[in-house]
Write a structure and sequence with these properties.
It comes from Curtobacterium aetherium. The structure is a single chain. The protein is an alpha/beta fold. It folds into 2 domains: 2-172 and 218-243, 3-Layer(aba) Sandwich (Rossmann fold); 178-216 and 248-277 and 295-309, no CATH class. The chain is built from 9 helices and 11 strands. The chain has helices at 10-21, 55-64, 86-107, 142-160, 187-196, 220-232, 251-259, 283-289, 297-309; strands at residues 2-5, 26-30, 46-49, 69-72, 111-117, 164-170, 172-174, 214-215, 217-219, 240-243, 249-250. Helix 1 crosses helix 6 (220-232) and helix 7 packs across helix 9. The longest helix has 22 residues, at 86-107. The chain is globular, with a radius of gyration of 19 Å.
């Protein structure tokens, strides 16, 4: 039985579905509600309401269910909100990670798969980016900084305990349930505009998008399946895996893919300055788990637009 923290979230819900479809039974740890999330209502999942940083509450899960693996996707924000103390916020975020490792030790769980991000590589260099590439310690944003800290802790604790902690460096992920708009890349906003038949609103992005902006994009159903494979594959030879498509997808590529579904889709993105393209090397993931993406950009756009047109906005 697999415990999934953040199982009601964007990537988490698709990971749960992939695990169940592969024959696993799942327990979702949710902070806000004990109810099964609507997007998973058709699945035989269990839900426990508890905070991932509450060790006693988490350990109680193991007294109710025979947990054999953990996928840790819950986001504990490593920065202060509502004017709180940033030191306290950082402590809470780190403690949430340590709570999961403590629980894994107590339950004799052999493996924890935890979410890292493509952002740990930074930006500016050319791809392909390998898990063996050196990682800069430069701080750009709280999320990749905290993920770097978590990866280091994972390496240390994997060495010092009997728990294998696997860090999944997840690339730009889009699809049903994702952020609208995603602040870091334009693909979700482009798909939403196409589904609505309106000019895409890209004002919510952190920086104005360009036609030639490119990122390693992976459709969320593939992301969930890759994480399920990392959880279920009997032997993993590495502590870190890129979870990605293995190719750079530009906004122009996304627009072209959308037009295979919505031929009259119109958007006017300017051409930006030339930039080196980055993508993630997925050799480790492919060789150790057999993963290959099932969705190319056109198939992803078609599936996502159909979901949006069915009345979904997130």
């Amino acid at each position: 039985m697999i415990l999934v923290t953040g199982g009601a979230g964007f990537i988490g819900s698709h990971t749960v579905r992939s695990l169940v479809e592969a024959g696993e039974e799942c327990v979702l740890l949710q902070r806000r509600t004990p109810e099964v999330p609507p997007q998973l209502a058709d699945l035989p999942v269990h839900v426990v309401q508890a905070d991932v940083g509450d060790l006693e509450a988490v350990l109680a899960v193991g007294r109710r269910f025979p947990i054999t693996g953990i996928v840790h996707l819950a986001v504990a924000l490593p920065w202060a909100t509502d004017g709180g103390d940033p030191v306290d916020a950082t402590s809470t975020a780190i403690e949430a990670f340590l709570t999961i490792v403590r629980a894994a030790e107590a339950w004799k769980v052999p493996r924890v798969v935890t979410a890292s991000t493509i952002g740990v590589y930074g930006f500016g260099g050319a791809g392909p980016l390998s898990e063996d590439d050196p990682i800069s310690f430069r701080h750009v944003h709280a999320i990749p900084t905290f993920k770097k800290i978590a990866e280091l802790l994972a390496l240390h604790l994997s060495d010092q305990t009997d728990v294998q902690i696997v860090s999944a460096r997840i690339s730009g992920t889009w699809g049903p349930g994702g952020h609208q708009p995603d602040p870091f890349f334009a693909a979700p906003s482009l798909a939403l505009g196409a589904a609505r038949g309106t000019t895409p609103d890209v004002s919510g992005l952190a920086a104005p998008p360009h036609r030639n902006d490119a990122l390693d994009l992976l459709y969320v159903k593939d992301t969930g399946r890759a994480l399920a494979l990392l959880m279920r594959t009997p032997e993993l030879r590495h502590p870190t895996y890129n979870v990605a498509s293995g190719r750079a997808t530009s906004n122009a590529d996304v627009v072209e893919a959308i037009r295979t579904v919505v031929p009259d889709f119109a958007v006017d993105l300017p051409v930006g300055p030339d930039q080196p393209q980055q993508w993630l090397d997925t050799t480790r993931l492919r060789e150790d788990t057999g993963f290959t993406p099932e969705y190319d950009t056109a198939a992803a756009a078609a599936d996502y637009i159909a979901w949006l047109r069915a009345g979904n906005e997130r």
